[in-house]
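CO-FOLDING WORKSHEET

Operator: S.A.
Ligand of interest: zinc ion
Run index: 252
Mode: holo prediction, single chain
Checklist:
[x] sequence pasted
[x] SMILES validated
[ ] output reviewed
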Amino acid sequence: MPSNLKLTFLGTGEAFDEELPNTSILYDTGQTRLLMDCGYSIPHQVWKQSTDPNFLHGIFLSHHHADHAFGLPAVLTRMWETKRSLPLTIIGHAGTQEYVHKLMEIGYPTLISRLEFPLEFIDVHAGDQIRFRELELSFAQSIHSVTNYSIRISYQGKTTCYSGDGSFSEATKALFKDCDFLIHESFSWERVVYLHASIQELLEMVKEQNIKTYCLIHIQRDFKKKVWNFLKDFQQEPFKLLVPKPGESVYL
Ligand SMILES: [Zn+2]
Ligand SMILES: [Zn+2]
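OUTPUT RECEIVED:
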């Protein structure tokens, strides 16, 4: 029997990929739907999943970059227009509330003060463990050009981690340890930029941290076409490799 925990990749791309929507994942237990990141090409992907204004319960923002957050004004405004009634929770690091208010003010001035549903914010700090509905969440900071939090979600004995952007740090390595499913930005094969992750280093880390499935997203747009040529030698490893396509769902 398939489990009721479903992950849907609304987008898997880096910021400037002409083919793939931005990286964004819908975590769905059947009772709770948490959207992880909401870049500028994501609103339409959310509405294709459902036009119900109450569809999402929470949105986690890993960091304040446009390809991870600039979809929010459209998503929130359509919720207002279609008369959402349930509270919506936005989870992010300190300063996220102010950032979302600014984004909304630029996109649809004065609208945030006219929302007819409660918009709630949970500010999290590295090392925090919180409960959101039936989910246990914890966070750690990666190495990126702005503050980025990776997230670990535990639900009914299954653990899923999502990196957001950046290279892994000692703290995110510890966060990912023994997880069932790691979704990690995998920008390039070798390290070209310190602030993005290299697949070579990730493959080592995944083995070392006893991670069961390593799912590659946010791959540099030219490199993504040949990523499997590089990965083919690693298919015998004790972990599973996955390069999901936009719209694809995985049951855990
Ligand atoms: Zn990004
Ligand atoms: Zn970024």
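REVIEW:
The mean pLDDT is 96.
The first helix runs from residue 43 to 49.
[x] output reviewed
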